[in-house]
Amino acid sequence: MPISPRSRPSTASATVTGNSAARRGRRGISKLTLRILAVNVLALALLVAGLLYLGRYQDRLIQAEMEALATEARIFASALGEGAVNRILVPPSPSGEDGGRERFELAPELARQMIRRLAEATATRTRLFDIDGRMLSDSRVLTGSTGRIEIRELPAPPAGDAISRAINTLYSRLIDVAPSREGLPLHGEETGRPNPDVERALAGETGATVWRVESAAGEPELLLTVAVPVQRYREVLGAVLLARGGGEIDRAIRSVRFDILRVFAVALLVTVALSFYLAGTIARPIRRLAQAADRLRTGHGRHTEIPDLTRRGDEIGELSGVLRDMTAALWARMDAIERFAADVAHEIKNPLTSLRSAVETVGRIEDPGRRARLMAIIADDVQRLDRLISDISNASRLDAELSRAELEPVDIGAMLAMLADIQRAAEASEDGGSTGDGPRIVIDVPDEERLIVPGLEGRLTQVFQNLIANALSFSPPGGTVRVTARRAGSLLRVTVSDDGPGIPEGKEEAIFERFYTERPAGEKFGTHSGLGLSISQQIVQAHDGLVDAQNRLSPDGRILGADFRVTLPLRR
Fold this sequence. Notes:
Blueprint lengths: L6 H19 L5 H23 L1 H29 L1 E5 L12 E5 L1 H15 L2 E6 L4 E4 L2 E4 L2 E4 L11 H14 L12 H4 L4 H7 L4 E8 L5 E13 L2 E11 L1 H52 L16 H48 L5 H37 L3 E4 H19 L9 E5 L7 E4 L1 H18 L5 E9 L2 E7 L34 H11 L3 E8 L5 E11 L3
Parallel strand pairs: 11-13
Antiparallel strand pairs: 1-2, 3-4, 3-9, 5-6, 7-8, 8-9, 10-12, 13-14, 14-16, 15-16
């Protein structure tokens, strides 16, 4: 169909747009590579985030530390209950009922000395409270003749450069979130409230609490406290409060997290490398295939080929093979269309030339006889043109029909028998009910099995109808056209044989070419368009079959006739 001038700019514009899109697609990292990288890194990041949480690990460390602290507190309380107690004899009352009763109380000076000695061995802050809740001793406060000296831990000096300090600060902020420490109570010294652990210990119970405090640098830290009662013969004399910072716990968690982060860094590098490798084996070949397809679409000629990646043995290689086969099929289809157009133009040109010559001549001839002959030629040429156009139209529609239609089971034996009956009935009607001396048709199909092939019944009927009609046209009067169908493994082979003059030497393949004609002597010129065998071959090939022809020879080499063989796959 010709292209109007209005349609050409839009086509060119679409081509330019496609080229621009293709150039944009070739810039930078492909989206598929980024998606592969994002999926792999995200999965690894989620795994590492879960490992870095360490909530249960922190709880186990705190529990172990609290148990150790409670053991120390009980040891301190037992030592104080045995060695830092004053024995007091209660004077008798005026009534004389409770005279001579003894009671015990903590000896402040002796208790301070024992607390200082015990705390030196454990490096734990230890405080002693009397039965009224007054603090008697603190391991961080030294009392002498000149006054009191309080010991305070100084914050560690900043280590490393500014980047390292920023990372440490960020880490300290994060450990208060994962696992969260917001739910921990703020230590009593910072709120001004009395310590609840001491109150429970003075009531005869053991108190233990995990606190949240802020260091001198303003960073959140843990503080563990345990208070146990100091008793003498089950009489509560006071309470011992041990407090220990969570630095060891934080350092243990930090060490585990840094180990996880180091493994994560290595795993991240490996994941990124493998992601780029995977993307390279997927995205890059797909991009090469897309670019080659775009060059085929916008280029001229056949110098561009689809890359051959079939040696990969995977889906990309399969895609490459399919694209190469599709490209080859498209080029073959274009070649066939070009040849078909050239053949059609050549075949139509002959009757048109004859028509033109006859029309130009008929006006100058006055002889009625010659004028009648010219008019007959014109009528024959018009009829020939009509037949050519009809056959060309059928041939052009055939390919589209074969590509869209669904295959169905077809019984070839029944079809051949039906065609033979139709042909006999047609000959009988032409001869007025007598068989005459024309060629007869013999069908040889096995009765014990059905020969079923997947196909289009109408088109396969057209194939065998063409072959039988061709054999009948070449068979001499009284000859025989034999149609034989036999199973050959998973294939069906149908042979149509005639007793005619055979196929000219070297023309066994040429007879299937479009518009090729080789008719019997005496047949009127132009009766056949030369498309019958070509259409038959096209139909058989669309059914994954094969059609060929050869001469049938006698033992002495004489031609006995022609055999046309059609091979089709049987239904599985």
